[in-house]
């Protein structure tokens, strides 16, 4: 079992090549040439680390939040594996099957989104034949049916998106709560109302939910998901026995604009929160605002609900001794 060490430079030569100052802000001790000088990496993605003295390096080792890795140094009492035995076993397995080394193929299996599966071919066995070499390029686009088809050697779309996803989650893991926020009023309405008086929707069930401290840079798809997840349970509780077609619900803003028609990754309300910092100035300052977002039930679906409600009332109005044929 290997011991642990702090994330430092790749080489083991942790000696100062010239006089320098410890880069830990609270230390700033002078490191003379030939004295220990260690490089400590930071947790911020893309930010360089710092060179510290030996005392600061020991302090980092004692901190609970310091990342560590196996040092490669074996602890006392543990015996390392015999490399000669490993080489003999591998050579014997290869000679019994083929003069070619065993091939490894990266394969993507249908709905498995966790990453590639490394398949070791059956050339390890004595009675198998050498396996062919698969060289599959990373596909640019794949249809939905192709992704969920039978397993094929190569890389899937998930592998091509690895770099973008890594940067996204690295930034999100260390991001602070948004300083610029807005408040929302989420409600459920049905299509209808007097158009001459400016009515576009009619509320039902007194379904309304307020939310504050919402990121002002939220985009239209994020608003759609937030509104549906918040209002959907309340609509289901309003009419538990009716089968709502929730995929037909439309999410609109206070100006009755369909949010599904707007692109993603573009802040939807942020531009409406920018105002001149002072009169006559071109500099813009952020000022929080309140916005209304509605989950709209289409007219056809509301008519189906009313027909269902009429049938329920007719059944409840029949005498208890009525015989149904």
Compile the SSE list and pairings.
Elements: E1 2-6, E2 20-21, E3 30-31, E4 37-40, E5 50-53, H1 54-62, E6 68-74, H2 83-97, E7 105-108, E8 117-119, H3 144-147, E9 152-153, H4 157-160, H5 162-173, E10 181-191, E11 201-215, H6 220-238, E12 250-253, E13 274-276, E14 284-286, E15 290-297, H7 299-317
Parallel strand pairs: 10-15
Antiparallel strand pairs: 1-6, 2-3, 4-5, 7-8, 7-9, 10-11, 12-15, 13-14
Structural class by SSE content? alpha+beta
- Report low-confidence residues grouped into runs of 5 or more: 128-149
Q: What about the largest sheet?
A: 4 strands, mixed
Q: Distance between termini? A: 78 Å
How would you describe the oligomerization state of the chains in this entry?
single chain
Structure description:
Helix content is 25%, strand content 24%. A hairpin with a 7-residue loop joins strand 13 (274-276) and strand 14 (284-286). It has helices at 54-62, 83-97, 144-147, 157-160, 162-173, 220-238, 299-317, and strands at 2-6, 20-21, 30-31, 37-40, 50-53, 68-74, 105-108, 117-119, 152-153, 181-191, 201-215, 250-253, 274-276, 284-286, 290-297. A 4-stranded mixed β-sheet has the order 11-10-15-12. It has 325 residues and is an alpha+beta fold. It starts with a strand and ends in an 8-residue tail after the last helix. The longest helix is centred in the last third of the chain and has 19 residues, at 220-238.
């Amino acid at each position: 079992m290997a011991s642990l060490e702090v994330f430092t430079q790749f080489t083991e030569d942790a000696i100062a090549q010239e006089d320098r100052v410890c880069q830990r802000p609270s230390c700033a001790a002078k490191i003379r040439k030939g004295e220990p000088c260690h490089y400590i990496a930071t947790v911020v993605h893309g930010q360089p680390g710092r060179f510290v003295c030996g005392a600061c390096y020991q302090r980092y080792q004692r901190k609970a939040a310091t990342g560590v890795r196996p040092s490669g140094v074996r602890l006392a009492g543990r015996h390392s594996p015999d490399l000669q035995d490993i080489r003999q076993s591998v050579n014997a397995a290869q000679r019994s099957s083929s003069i070619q080394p065993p091939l490894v193929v990266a394969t993507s299996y249908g709905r498995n989104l966790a990453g590639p599966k490394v398949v070791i071919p059956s050339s390890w066995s004595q009675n198998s034949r050498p396996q062919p070499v698969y060289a599959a390029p990373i596909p640019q686009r794949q249809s939905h049916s192709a992704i969920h088809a039978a397993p094929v050697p190569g890389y899937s779309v998930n592998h091509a998106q690895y770099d973008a996803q890594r940067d996204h989650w690295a930034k999100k893991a260390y991001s602070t709560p948004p300083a610029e926020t807005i408040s929302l009023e989420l409600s459920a309405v049905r299509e209808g109302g007097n158009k001459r008086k400016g009515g576009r929707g009619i509320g039902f069930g007194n379904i309304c939910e307020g939310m504050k401290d919402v990121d002002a840079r939220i985009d239209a798809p994020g608003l759609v998901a937030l509104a549906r997840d918040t209002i959907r349970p309340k609509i289901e509780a309003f009419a538990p026995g009716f089968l709502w077609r929730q995929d037909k619900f439309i999410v609109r803003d206070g100006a009755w604009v369909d949010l599904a028609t707007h692109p993603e990754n573009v802040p939807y309300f942020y531009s409406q929160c920018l105002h001149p910092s002072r009169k006559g100035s071109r500099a813009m300052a952020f000022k929080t605002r309140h916005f209304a977002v509605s989950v709209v039930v289409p007219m056809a679906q509301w008519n189906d609900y009313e027909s269902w409600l009429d049938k329920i009332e007719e059944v409840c109005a029949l005498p208890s001794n009525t015989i149904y044929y």
